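REVIEWER CHECKLIST
Item 1: Sequence provided? yes
Item 2: Single chain? yes
Item 3: Sequence as submitted:
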Amino acid sequence: MQTLAMTTVLSDASPIAFGCMGLGGQWDGLGYTAAELKQAHHCIEVALEEGINFFDHADIYCNGKSEQIFGEILATQPQLREQIYIQSKCGIRFADQEGPQRYDFSYQHIIDSVNGSLRRLGCGYLDILLLHRPDPLMEPEEVARAFEQLAAAGKVRHFGVSNMNHHQLQFLQRYLDQPLVVNQMELNLLHCDFVESMVTVNDHQGQSVHFSEGLIEYCAEQNVQLQAWSPLAKGVFGRPATEAKVAMAQEHIDQYARQFGCERETILLAWLMRLPIGIQPVIGTMNEQRIRACAKAVDVSLSREQWYQLFTDIRGHHIP
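Item 4: Structure as written out by the authors:
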């Protein structure tokens, strides 16, 4: 299954991305160990073996060590850079002597962040740069100036955002010459308000929905690739259930896994990827078996009845 937006932007990008937040060890000021480097190298190799060629980073992941360790691996295989896609993010600043944790879409911070990412990765360009979380103090002209300079210098080929609603996307896009091609959101079977927003229109059940109404349709219309962070719901469905609705979903997930000869992870991603809008899951596991199980989701197509069964399970009651 090919995702919709990537067919025009990155035609041969894999429909599943590997999230690199776990590479690099601890979130501290210390370096990574030889064992952590070996584990990172193995995870990347497994992902590549499974046909995953899209790697998702952020400047803050492991305080920069995720990009650094990835760059060290790239340095041993320089030919690999032209065979893969690298996406990174900027805009989150941790608390420091200057202030509390904050967001920063200023021109200088965007430029400095990209230069830092490229230095750590040891490469000349990013395929995609995402703004990590909405900055209430954003001056869109500043963002536009940074994007224009980065594009002109060949340092970033495409741009996108993360965790933005469609009004924020529309507003920012008005100032940009480059199209925003990605919006990365938390989307999974447990965190499924994105589906609730579609099925509870004009119904009282929609009063508790917390998702940007119209975002799905806007992204489809504007060819913005929706990426799903935490597509496995932080492992909730792999642990003993503490809620009846999760237990019910697990029962059907296991039933479908037996039917398709796969694992729970496969079914969870297949549920996301069944939507015609073309969601690209960003998996973050460091476990080889789970990486391979996730990759198999491209070969599993749930029926309409199976898809709605899982959605009904996790809602705890039938749709309107």
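Item 5: Key structural point noted by reviewer: Strands lie at 17-19, 54-56, 85-90, 92-93, 102-103, 126-131, 156-162, 180-186, 225-229, 280-283.
Item 6: Recommendation: ____
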